[in-house]
Amino acid sequence: MSARNARSESEPDMSMCAGGGRGVCFASVQVREYFRILGDNPSVTSGPPISLSWEYDEDLSGRCSIDEWEGMRCHERRTRLQFRVPEEVRMDWVLDAGYSPDQVREVVGAIEKERRELMSSVVKSRLQDKADVVAEGVKKRLARAVGKREKSDALYTKWVSSVGQREKTKLLRRATA
Description:
Oligomer: single chain
Radius of gyration: 32 Å
Order of helices and strands: EEEHHHHH
């Protein structure tokens, strides 16, 4: 029904920290139990998404010192995979929170529709990018065929033949300076 969230609530102590250096130190940690609610995050791969409510259970909230908190919590951090909650567990959580199966199906359906629209947009975007590249190439070839545009190597050759050696040297010096 709720999820733990620890955060430091005390005013930071801007004086010397325990390690001897300057920095910010906190004296206590406030742990709150937030209620789980049916979410709307489209990144969930299947089943209902879970979010935390803005409300929390004050009876299950508490405060302790940083040292107590560090002593109570596990010293090993969880991996990303360990934070994943199976679809069945998430379904139980939202049903226990008072949501009806119809409400869950409605949210899951809306998320699946949004995901399909996003994938369609991505595919269309990739196809449009390819079409734009092809169209630009065709446009350049047509312009050359009609004589309105020359190849870039032809333009370079014209430039080399029209500029004298001394002028080329000046230009190159300015470019490298």
